[in-house]
Design goal:
Layout lengths: L1 H11 L38 H10 L2 H11 L3 H15 L4 H12 L4 H21 L1 E4 L15 E4 L13 H25 L13 H12 L2 H4 L1 H11 L5 H8 L9 H12 L19 H15 L4 H8 L5 H10 L5 H4 L1 H19 L6 H8 L3 H21 L9 H15 L4 H6 L10 H9 L1 E7 L5 E7 L9 H10 L9 H21 L3 H8 L1 H22 L8 H15 L2 H21 L2 H20 L1 H27 L6 H6 L1 H18 L11 H5 L1 H11 L2 H25 L5 E2 L21 H11 L20 E2 L4 H14 L18 H47 L18 H8 L2 H13 L7 H11 L12 H65 L5
Antiparallel strand pairs: 1-2, 3-4, 5-6
Helix pairs in contact: 3-4, 4-10, 6-12, 10-13, 12-13, 13-17, 15-17, 17-20, 19-20, 25-30, 26-29, 26-30, 28-29, 29-30, 30-32, 34-38, 35-37, 35-38, 40-41
Length: 1022
């Protein structure tokens, strides 16, 4: 079985645990406890099978059952250690199937009592071994040399170290060092007598390596070393917040239950010397040899609580040992001498301790655990620790010599700040200390940094309870541009329920990709500089387009053909620029200087326009209009190319695939803009006129004008089709019955055609000839024109000889005239037989086509524009008066403790929710807290129920606070009444005593008065 396990470990896990086979635990085992273990979940063997699949395959073949059976039955420490390591390999990465398999083995097959008894006994044995051989480190590393010749560790046999009010002074340290050296020598002699084979260190004659080896043998016995894989195994059993196994570790529902949660806390108490840490003595017990074991204990306890598991939280917080006090001391104390030469280990301890305290308070709606933590915690020390961590982070940033895998001091300080933020809800003094500016001379920069990089949100759980989450903002979120924030805030659409969360959540993926791209382009300073000024390039392009078109409109044609127009403009230019040449030149130079200086003192759009105008006039005066237009066109083309590069740099267009590039209409628009600039520069100046349409793209009002036609385009098109059908019907009627009425006046071009041997022959129109005949009473016959000559009717033309001509005439003239087609037809006489039909024809066309159909089209466009304007106003009103996340309106926060501005800035900040979504993406799943795990699952399912809807904790707490205030007032009244009653009772008791005393005095006086003569009679003489 042992050989089989070795083969499986070496084959499927590439020998990661191979170094541990020859011993209970390798020295680098602690690496597997960081970041969710030594496996990332993406490792695979040569065939490409994932580690998860390998784990499940081994479990299917009975690996988990083998581990459980071996742990229960074996008496061999070597086999037990290998079984634990195999269990760790199976559970690595939080494999839920393996967890369920272990739970089934232990619970359903009734192995839990023996299984947990073995682990419980191992913990008890380790604690006894620690108590019997406590390692006390008494080094003063202030005088420690590089050779570590002053490194002394002594083992003192004692039962238990208890706290005292004794402070270690310099003289006492020296005495303690001497005593520990003597004790070390005596202990070495004793060990040599008990076991001669052990290589013991001499009194200073052996090398430092031998000292370290002997010290490790004495301080880390196998019974203690085996605890690290055991605790790692228990941690992985609860990985991913497995609630069943978390409760199972505490209570197995057997005849004899073994509470491994409390036993783990007791082990932490034991390994840290069973001290409260109040005297700063933890450094005497925590050293480089056992710090990995302490870290593993803290991580296991954290995993027991997260999820949250309220029972385990209460179990740890209310335990009788010094566990909570030790965890607090790990955060507040310096842990010297370890911290003087291995600060990275101390930072890791503080980080894990702060995470454990946060896990104990996680998702709790009461204040019991927080008050228990605050009972022995001094707020001032907690704030000082986070400030010191921030300062250490600044020093390490300047030195830049920290290892890549080591934790940053700033991150440790950030976790402690979040812990303080959670505790500040229950402590007003701490809450005041965390406010930046409260103490400007004492580390205010650290508080500002942590406050700016910390966010909070509110989520809704499955049971519809709300919970507040405080989390560090991921560094990648700093790369989100202000343009993207503005675009998302103003363009996110509401769904049927009036919530913007759905659209906002769908955009989160693109925003995250944009953050990654922005982070990437920071490595390219030129591209980053261009992309950062994208709005400037857009303004310059639009202004250049306007000035180019002004030049074209005023001075085109530019006189390339030498015509009269060119001479006219040359005259104007010569007059204005030639006669006033010296003065105008000086004025232009002054204008250029003034406009250039305005670029530095005024906002960019304001300063750009005067600068461009002055440069353009100066160029026209110096080199002429044609070259100036070419220069402006080339400048506009280059500037738009820069804008396009900035646009791609900001949005990472090409990183999203070719399909996304094709579907990105904004990108295609800017590419078309560049092509038009090229056409205007290389083909003809009139192409520049298309650039003015950029105003529509830049202004939302003009976009609404376009949308008023396009939004209801289908309705408009169908109405236009109806109009065409009606025109077609009226054309048929006109062709059949009113063909002779379709005559209209036309004006032909006065073409002059030359005739042989003569000049030009004037043309005579039919109307003029008819008028002459009427005046001269001649016959109405028209003279016959000789062959080779032709006479055309000038002024009147028949327009309905064919149906197509009728359709064109009715469509063209009928729709463009206010009275319909009747305005252009022949005016009939009332004596004509078709006069009534003509009147009906004209009126029907006017009412049906002109009044009804055309006004339907105009009405659709006008109503759409009105709707767009009202929607815009409503959207602006919603942005100002409604919370983006929960949808609550401003008036809900009137007369409340939290204003609407504070609510949207702190409680329901939309960008904080985006940062939390990004945090869930970038964080290792095995490092999730309970709320993060819940939200990650909801995001995977695309379930948005975790967003608060029409709810806010401040409003709920206000309602609860009002009830609490009433109860508190009643309690205060009751207490005041009881105190008054107690006071009155005391006064009555005093009066009673006084009355009794007076009564006794009176009785005494009466008794003495009655017996006085008798007493005096028997008094003896002096």
């Amino acid at each position: 079985g042992s050989n089989l396990r070795k083969i499986l470990l070496n084959r499927y896990f590439k020998g990661d645990f191979g170094s541990s086979i020859n011993g209970p635990l390798s020295s680098n085992y602690g690496k597997t406890t960081q970041g969710g273990g030594g496996f990332s979940g993406q490792d695979s063997d040569k065939s490409g099978v994932s580690m998860h699949d390998i784990q499940c395959l081994l479990d299917k073949e009975g690996a988990s059952e083998l581990v459980a059976d071996v742990i229960v039955s074996t008496k061999n420490d070597r086999i037990f250690s290998e079984a634990i390591l195999l269990g760790i390999a199976l559970l690595e990465g939080g494999n839920t199937q393996i967890q369920y398999s272990f739970y089934q083995q232990l619970n359903e097959q009734k192995k839990s009592e023996k299984f947990f008894k073995v682990l419980y006994d191992r913990m008890k044995t380790a604690q006894q071994e620690i108590r019997s051989t406590v390692t006390v480190n008494t080094i003063d590393l202030g005088s420690k040399k590089k050779e570590d010749d002053g490194d002394l560790t002594v083992s003192v046999r004692k039962n238990r170290v208890r706290d005292s009010n004794l402070h270690l002074k310099e003289g006492m340290k020296g005495q303690l060092t001497e005593a520990s050296t003597a004790t070390s020598k005596a202990y070495c002699v004793y060990r040599r007598g008990m076991d001669p084979e052990i290589d013991l260190m001499s009194a200073g004659t052996e090398t430092a390596n031998a000292e370290e080896k002997s010290s490790e043998e004495m301080t880390m016995s196998p019974a203690i070393v085996i605890m690290q894989p055991i605790l790692r195994f228990l941690q992985l059993l609860c990985e991913n917040h497995n609630r069943e196994l978390q409760n199972f570790l505490r209570n197995q529902n057997n005849k004899t239950n073994y509470n491994l949660v409390c036993e783990t806390l007791q082990f932490l108490d034991c390994i840290c010397g069973s001290t409260t840490g109040g005297l700063g003595l933890l450094g005497l017990y925590i050293n480089e040899k056992n710090v990995a074991l302490v870290n593993q204990t803290l991580e296991s306890l954290t995993e027991y609580c997260q999820g949250p598991c309220h029972e385990n939280q209460t179990c740890i917080a209310t335990h009788e040992s010094n566990g909570i006090d030790i965890i607090i001391a790990l955060i507040l104390n310096d842990i010297n001498p370890l911290g003087k030469y291995r600060m990275d280990l101390v930072l890791q301890l503080k980080n894990n301790a702060s995470k454990l305290l946060l896990a104990i308070m996680e998702s709790r709606h009461d204040s019991e655990n927080a008050e228990r933590i605050l009972f022995n915690m001094r707020p001032r020390e907690l704030v000082d620790v986070m400030k010191n961590a921030y300062n250490q982070g600044l020093e390490s940033d300047h030195e830049e010599d920290t290892a890549d895998d080591s934790i940053s001091p700033k991150d440790v300080g950030h976790n402690i700040y979040i812990l303080a933020h959670q505790l500040a809800r229950h402590n007003k003094i701490l809450q005041q200390m965390l406010k930046p500016g409260s103490e400007p001379d004492e580390g205010d920069e650290a508080l500002k940094y942590y406050a700016n990089h910390t966010a909070q949100i509110e989520i809704v759980r499955h049971d519809r309870t709300m919970e507040q989450i405080v989390f560090p903002v991921p560094n990648i979120c700093e790369f989100l541009t202000h343009e993207s924030k503005y675009r998302v805030f103003n363009t996110t659409e509401r769904d049927e329920q009036g919530s913007k969360v759905n659209d906002f959540f769908q955009q989160s993926e693109d925003l995250y990709n944009e953050m990654k791209w922005q982070k990437k382009i920071r490595n390219n300073p030129a591209l980053f500089w261009f992309s950062r000024h994208i709005s400037l390039w857009g303004s310059i392009s639009f202004n250049l387009a306007v000035f180019i078109n002004l030049a074209v409109a005023l001075f085109y044609p530019f006189g390339d053909d030498g015509d009269e127009v060119e001479q006219k403009y040359d005259f104007l230019l010569t007059f204005f620029l030639g006669t006033l040449s010296p003065l105008f030149s000086v004025l232009l130079w002054i204008a250029v200087a003034i406009c250039t200086s305005m670029l530095f003192f005024f906002p960019k759009p304001v300063g750009i326009r005067p600068f461009l105008v002055s440069i353009m006039l100066r160029s026209i005066y110096t080199i002429g209009l044609g070259p100036t237009l070419i220069l402006l066109g080339a400048a506009n083309l280059c500037n738009k190319i820069v804008f396009l590069v900035s646009f791609v740099g900001n949005r990472g267009t090409f990183t999203r695939g070719y399909r996304a590039v094709i579907m990105d209409m904004a990108f295609l628009y800017h590419v078309a803009y560049v092509l038009v600039c090229m056409l205007g520069l290389c083909v003809h100046e009139f192409f520049y006129s298309f650039l003015l349409f950029d105003l529509v793209y830049r202004e939302e009002t003009l976009l609404n004008v376009i949308k008023s036609v396009t939004r209801n385009g289908r309705s408009i098109i169908l109405t236009a089709v109806l109009a065409l059908i009606l025109v077609y019907l009226f054309s048929i009627v006109g062709f059949l019955f009113l063909k002779d009425d379709f005559t209209m006046e036309v004006e032909r071009l006065k073409n002059r055609t030359p005739i042989a041997d003569s000049g030009t022959v004037p043309t005579t129109t039919l109307t003029a000839m008819m008028g002459t005949c009427v005046k001269e009473n001649c016959t109405a016959t028209i003279p016959v024109i000789q062959s080779g000559e032709e006479v055309e009717e000038d002024g009147i033309e028949r327009t309905c000889d064919t149906l197509l001509m009728c359709i064109v005439t009715v469509l063209n003239q009928g729709l463009r005239n206010g009275g319909g087609v009747g305005d252009v037809l022949r005016k009939p006489s009332k004596d004509e037989p078709l006069f009534a039909a003509r009147v009906v024809y004209d009126l029907l066309f006017y009412f049906i086509v002109i009044i009804i159909v055309l006004n339907l089209i105009f009405g659709v466009i006008i109503d759409t524009f009105a709707d767009l304007r009202s929607e815009k106003q409503k959207k602006e009103e919603i942005l100002k008066t409604t919370c983006f996340i929960c949808g609550l309106e401003r008036d809900k926060f009137d007369n409340k403790t939290v204003s609407f501005e504070e609510h949207i800035k702190s409680e329901h900040n939309m960008w904080h929710y985006l940062c939390f979504i990004v945090l869930v993406r970038v964080k290792d799943p095995t490092e999730y807290t309970g709320p993060e795990s819940y939200v990650a699952q909801m995001i995977t399912e695309k379930n948005l129920d975790w967003f608060p809807r029409m709810r806010a904790m401040s409003l709920v707490s206000n309602e609860g606070d009002s009830e609490q205030n009433e109860i508190r007032n009643l309690q205060e009244r009751l207490e005041s009444t009881m105190s008054l009653v107690k006071q009155l009772s005391g006064q009555l008791a005093e009066l009673k005593e006084q009355m009794t005393e007076q009564r006794k005095n009176k009785q005494r006086l009466g008794f003495l008065g009655s017996n006085a003569p008798h007493v005096n009679h028997h008094m003896p003489p002096h």
